[in-house]
């Protein structure tokens, strides 16, 4: 929670036109989850958040409820809220849903793309590349997710956009929880290639590139083998059997 507190700007109550306090709190927590400053299973104490954001607990509850509807926060009776921690089976289901969604989105994006939308995405990719080059993995990951949300906006389909936003944030949780080895980013060139193909109007090639891109994301997640345990009895179970 300290990471979140350090990330909140001094002018927290300054809002973009039309934004409510609920929106401000929601956006800050959502970004902190996307940037992995709030890792899976982090408890989200209402009282602490109310103090951090200088708002009432009612506003905090509304923001957390919105996040729970996007399945990035879990709210349990008598236990409060926490950042969701998907199981491996849930993770596989999320990835499968993402694959179905992305292929539909990329096809529609080719159909509805405009020069202005493509240029906006290119600027986003430049910022993403800069973040990764500077070693800011959390920011790079958030911008990478935003790229896929922008593609959904380009597809000009509101329901797909809503689902995509939730799936992108859930994928960030999976990466935080299940990514193997050192942080790496294979998406920089792939995002540029996707935009080039969208701009060319080649739907078949765009779908093929997206399939390859999603395969790379999937390959970075350890969803098949058993995770290491921090339970000493589990770690040394063989020794205990011989006692």
Automatic annotation (TrEMBL):
<dbReference type="Pfam" id="PF07729">
    <property type="entry name" value="FCD"/>
</dbReference>
<dbReference type="GO" id="GO:0003700">
    <property type="term" value="F:DNA-binding transcription factor activity"/>
</dbReference>
<dbReference type="GO" id="GO:0003677">
    <property type="term" value="F:DNA binding"/>
</dbReference>
<dbReference type="InterPro" id="IPR008920">
    <property type="entry name" value="TF_FadR/GntR_C"/>
</dbReference>
<dbReference type="InterPro" id="IPR000524">
    <property type="entry name" value="Tscrpt_reg_HTH_GntR"/>
</dbReference>
<dbReference type="InterPro" id="IPR036390">
    <property type="entry name" value="WH_DNA-bd_sf"/>
</dbReference>
<keyword id="KW-0238">DNA-binding</keyword>
<dbReference type="InterPro" id="IPR036388">
    <property type="entry name" value="WH-like_DNA-bd_sf"/>
</dbReference>
<dbReference type="Pfam" id="PF00392">
    <property type="entry name" value="GntR"/>
</dbReference>
<dbReference type="InterPro" id="IPR011711">
    <property type="entry name" value="GntR_C"/>
</dbReference>
<keyword id="KW-0804">Transcription</keyword>
<feature type="domain" description="HTH gntR-type">
    <location>
        <begin position="19"/>
        <end position="86"/>
    </location>
</feature>
<keyword id="KW-0805">Transcription regulation</keyword>
<protein>
    <submittedName>
        <fullName>GntR family transcriptional regulator</fullName>
    </submittedName>
</protein>
């Amino acid at each position: 929670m300290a990471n979140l507190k350090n990330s909140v700007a001094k002018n927290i109550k300054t809002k973009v036109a039309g934004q409510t306090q609920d929106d401000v709190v929601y956006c800050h927590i959502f970004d902190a989850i996307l940037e992995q400053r709030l890792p899976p299973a982090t408890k989200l104490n209402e009282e602490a958040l109310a103090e951090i954001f200088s708002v009432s607990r009612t506003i905090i509850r509304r923001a957390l409820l919105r996040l729970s509807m996007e399945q990035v926060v879990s709210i349990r009776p008598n236990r409060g809220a926490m950042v969701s921690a998907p199981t491996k089976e849930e993770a596989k289901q999320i990835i499968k849903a993402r694959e179905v969604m992305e292929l539909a989105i990329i096809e529609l994006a080719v159909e509805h793309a405009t020069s202005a939308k493509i240029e906006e995405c290119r600027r986003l990719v430049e910022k993403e590349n800069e973040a990764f080059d500077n070693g800011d993995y959390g920011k790079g990951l958030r911008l990478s997710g935003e790229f896929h949300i922008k593609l959904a906006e380009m597809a000009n389909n509101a329901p797909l956009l809503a689902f995509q936003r939730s799936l992108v944030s859930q994928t960030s949780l999976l990466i935080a929880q299940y990514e193997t080895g050192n942080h790496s980013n294979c998406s920089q060139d792939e995002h540029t290639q996707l935009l080039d193909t969208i701009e060319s109007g080649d739907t078949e090639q765009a779908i093929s590139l997206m399939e390859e891109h999603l395969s790379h994301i999937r390959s970075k997640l350890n969803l098949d083998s058993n995770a290491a345990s921090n339970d000493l009895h589990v770690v040394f179970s063989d020794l205990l059997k011989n006692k």
